[in-house]
Each structure stands twice: as C-alpha cells, then as structure tokens.
Design a protein that fits this description.
mainly alpha; 293 residues; globular; 3% strand; 3 strands; three-stranded antiparallel beta sheet
Length: 293
Amino acid sequence: LFFDPDETLPELTDEESEALNKAIDEQINEPLDCLMNEAQGYELTEDSFEDTRAYAHIFKKVVDFMDIFFSESERDKTMVKFAFSDTVVDQLYEAYERDGTPNAFCHAQGLLFLVSRLVQYQCRSGGRHLIDCLDRTVKAFDKLFELWQRIYIRYPDRAKITNELMVNLVTFSAYPYMQVGDRKRFAEITRLEYKLASKMDLQFYKDVESDSGVMDKTDEEIWQEFRRHGRYRLACINCGEFEKKGKKHNRCGSCSNALYCSKECQVLHWKQHKADCRANSAPGRKKSAKQRS
C-alpha cells in the first residue's frame, strides 16, 4: 500500500495492460464487491459488535483482502498502484458517465465502509486484533485518505457521496490511539476530524465543536474527555490486553503517550516506542518511571 500516488506509472504494452486490468478485477474489484454483498446481510453497526465472535468470519475476510495492499511482490505493488492511480480514476469516471459502469467512487465507498467497521471490530476485540489495527488497519486508512483526497480534488461533486464516510473513518481511526493512551496522536486525528467536517459543512460537528471547544483544548484534555465516554476500553499498547476492574494500566512515565499492562510489555515495546517517546518527552523525565492512567 505504501506507494507514492504521484509516481509515474510504467509504460505497458496492450497485452500487459489487459493482463493488469484482469488482475485488478480478480484481486481487488470482484473480492471487494463480494465482501460488500456479504456485509449487507449483517447489521454492521457499532452497537452490533458487543458479541465480536458473531462477526469474526466477515472481518477475517476483510483482513485477508487487505493483505494485497501490504504485499512485497512487485506485481502486486504495480497492480495496486494502477488500481488507485489518477489515470484509472479518470478512466472509470468516464466509463460511469458514459454507460453507468461501477466506478472508483463505488469502490472507495466500499473500502471506506469496510475499513471503518474493521477498526470498530478490532477495537472492541482487543488483544492481537487491536495491535493489528494499529500496525496495519490505520495505516491502510492513511492511503485511503490519500485516495479520497485525490478523488475529492478531481471530482468534488461526485466525491460528496464519500464525504461523510470519510469523516466517520477519520473518527474511527482515532479510537485505537485513545485506547492505548497515545494522547498526542489521538488529539491530532480528532482535530483533523473537526477541520474536515467544518470544511464540508457537516452541521453535527459544528454543534459539537461549539459546545466542547475541541480545537482549543490540549492533547491531555481531549484524551480525558473522550475516554470518559467509556465507549472503548483502555488497553496495553504492546499486547492489547484490556484494563481489568481494580487494575489500571500504567502510562509511560517519560512521554505519557503509551499504556502498559506490565513492566514486561513496556520493555518488549521499547524498541518500537523509543523514537516517539524521546521526541515527545519532557526534559529530565526518566523513561522507566511509571504513572497511573
């Protein structure tokens, strides 16, 4: 998934182009259509995930589908690059205008819907699911956000159908950071959510912003306000274990941007956390110190 959308696409022969389009249909478009059709048979709302086991098989398929975006295969990288390029977006839009062929907007909507629901499912599930959300799903969101921005710039009238979905996905992508105590990242995404909503003139966000003053609050204030809602349980940033009644997780004593269930998890996570911790720590604080959340 991690390609430069502005990178020049390689020149292909007619035969290579035909083979590539066939692969895109078989490995991206058709599986996505099947997933969307199956998902429509279930009530995939936030409240429906109380029993996460009932939806495990659907989201296993979504995770498997997303594997292609992280593939190291040069063929897969080329295919994804073409599938999400401005060239292909333009071609599909022209086909839609000409004969109503399903297009990039439909696929963008499908991906936005499935990824937003996957984030909610993983946040509710905790454990390895929550860590996968941080390591993979929200990174996939970053590229979907780039795709949406390019569609929005090129076809603003048509892209309006994805605007609310996109803002919702921004909202959901912040939740895992809230759960694991990453106050800085959670606050950044929350502010982005309100900026986007303001730009798109979504009235609900205007009302909330006028009541809460989100844009003027500190990272800590934003995190504390949302965590008090209790929608998602706090969890360890290393293993995803939820807090238990009477036993709170501990913050990183240096940066306060990570929660740990144990000293062992803090030590295991240090290599991954080190750069962010040092960048966000107050001078003179020791990384080994602990502080109650």
